[in-house]
Design a protein that fits this description.
Layout lengths: L14 E5 L18 E5 L10 E3 L3 H10 L5 E3 L10 E3 L8 H13 L3 E5 L25 H8 L4 E5 L12 E4 L1 H5 L2
Parallel strand pairs: 1-2, 1-6, 2-3, 3-4, 4-5, 6-7, 7-8
């Protein structure tokens, strides 16, 4: 299997933070995560915060990244259709959302001891709702939480959220609130 991180080995840390754009993370300061592990973010996160890796599964978002001249590392599941400055590709199979793609990538390629999933809500609401490339009413992904569960693999995943809709019955899955996370 091709190693998409062969030139980025510094990103292979024991702790990874996967940042989604669910409304639960609206008041969470992502800067608190700097220096504590690899930070992987989804799509429009780059507008407010630069993660170590930005996942972009959407051609409209890829165009936005290109137009913004974003220079951070971008991971996609296929060619983005535009020439991004710092881009790697990894074929994940059937992952259709950036969150599922990210969990799969973390589990199969990065293999950290622990992954904190922040803002990967699985329920309505998006911090970028109604902005460029985001609908004013979010798309409902059929069984997205079951897709999260399938993507977990062997990595310990801790879902940091307001409520747990993932309903994962695996020994390497745990749910904690943002308050509990801040106390770690």
């Amino acid at each position: 299997m091709r190693d998409p991180l062969k030139n980025h080995k510094q990103l292979l840390t024991e702790k990874v933070f996967l940042i989604g754009n669910g409304s639960s993370r609206k008041n969470f300061d992502l800067n608190l995560l700097r220096g504590k592990g690899t930070i992987i973010g989804c799509n429009a996160l780059y507008r407010d915060f630069t993660p170590d890796i930005l996942i972009c599964q959407d051609s409209k978002m890829a165009r936005e990244l290109f137009d913004s001249q974003y220079s951070g590392l971008v991971l996609t599941g296929r060619g983005p259709g535009v020439r991004l400055k710092n881009h790697i590709t990894w074929k994940s199979g059937r992952a259709r959302t950036s969150g599922v793609f990210g969990l799969t990538f973390i589990s199969k390629i990065m293999k950290p001891k622990i992954c904190y999933a922040i803002g990967m809500d699985g329920y309505d609401g998006n911090v970028y709702e109604g902005t460029h490339n985001y609908l004013s009413k979010p798309i409902k992904y059929h069984k997205i939480t079951s897709q999260y569960a399938q993507a977990i693999g062997n990595t310990e995943v801790i879902n940091v959220n307001e409520k747990d809709l993932w309903q994962v019955d695996k020994p390497n899955y745990k749910f904690i609130t943002y308050k509990e996370f801040m106390g770690l």
